[in-house]
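Batch manifest line 480
LIGAND: protoporphyrin IX containing FE
JOB: complex structure
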Amino acid sequence: MNELPPGPDLHPLRQGMRFGASPFGFLDECARRHGDSFTLRLPGDPPRIVCSHPEDVRRIFALEPDHYVSHDVSIPLNLGARGLLFLDGESHLADRRLMVPPLHGDHLEGYARLIQQVTARRIASFRPGDSFAMHPEMQWVTLSVIMTCVFGLAEGHRLERLRHLTTRWLDGTLTPLVFLVSMAVTATRVRRFLDRAAAASQARYPEGPAPWRLLPWQRLADAKAEIIAILEQEIAECRVRPPGDRRDVMALLVSARYEDGRALETGALIDELIMLLVGGHETTANALCWALRHILARPDVLDRLRAELDEAFPGGKVDATKARKLPYLDACIKESMRLTPIAPAVGRSLIKPLPLERGEAPAGTIVWPCIYLTHRRPDLWPAPEEFRPERFLGEAKVSPNHFFPFGGGRRRCIGMAFASLEMQVVLAELLMTCDLALATGSRPTPIMRGITISPADGLRVVFAGPRRPTKSTTLAPNRR
Ligand code: HEM
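JOB STATUS: finished
ARTIFACT:
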């Protein structure tokens, strides 16, 4: 194919701005005009071929690692170059093999209880009659969960310091200003600049940051450098102390070995842990907000969900490990991620051409299986605009080329099982114990915040007070 599929006839800067301000609206508009595939041109990036045909999605997720590269992913955040997201080929596979087990299987059981404790602690701070934005609350919960389950930190000074630094680093970097700058000079350049600033700041440790650091990026660099210093200390302590009964991801990774017997070297381990911190915190907080938004907007769904919870937990107390096995709750979460995925698409930067349904994507372009547009296709999802959790009930398996909120193929999210568990437990605890409603006039329009899609108003809710479970627990029949 010599010509790329047509796309919006706008300057790249305008395409970037339109996408940032209204990601779903812009993608809908492009799909209406151009169909299953079209080309977006965002500033500083190669052309991006947006695909929503399930056959294209299948082809892209089946790509072999030598067909694309990931080291130049356009994210304006200095995550650390040795994190999974930026690795290619054999080193990507090797690190994935180490990182998948701690986030799966029996380990999840132990995390479920910790997630519930963290959620209950936050709920205890709600006051009856309060109206507040749910997003910061969910950020607090998901960040605390990562600190506890991934870093193995107990409540205390170090956890508080790390929470403070992470919030400062992420809130300072994932801003509209940094988004605009990365539009002008490319996200990769912004990332490298921030990486160099953090490395310079790190060189000063253990003395700590200089007091005269006034420029905003220097303060961000200092925050990142201190995060690294704390993690270095944690890892050093973990290496000398026998793991005992520690079951957090950091302890498991410290004792994990590559196939050739090597351990993860400290610098690489820190980058991987920071990858988990960022990949696993804002994503889940946003997904939780969207699920609450859909559930609270539909009294019939809320009633059915509460009936399921009351039946499962007749004493009124959620059993975290059982929350994983509630089919309607799980269906609500999946349906929410279908309608409002927190990542609009996933990208693969091609180094070889790839045949698509309409022509061929040449080497040098990015193919972009679009989660949002595929999830809204009327040929795959009848009445795609409607929130219908029933779609996900029953035995029938949903194709991974029709529904892929966690991406797909060899790079599918390694936190999928963990995030699903976290959402099940947090929502079960919230809906079981809190009388919550959407605030009047709440306008949760989707906007691009950093690397994920977030409700613009932070999802405003009203907490009426603690909820009492109902006595009668008749579950509504399935309506498929
Ligand atoms: C609702 C929550 C989450 C969503 C929707 C989500 C979504 C995604 C998506 C779309 C990708 C890209 C996949 C691809 O390119 O095909 C991804 C990658 C990744 N996610 Fe998640 N994620 C979530 C939570 C988490 C959690 C909790 C963790 C870790 C604790 C995590 C860690 C990662 C990592 C390390 C990658 C890179 C995988 C690789 O490149 O091999 N994510 N995630």
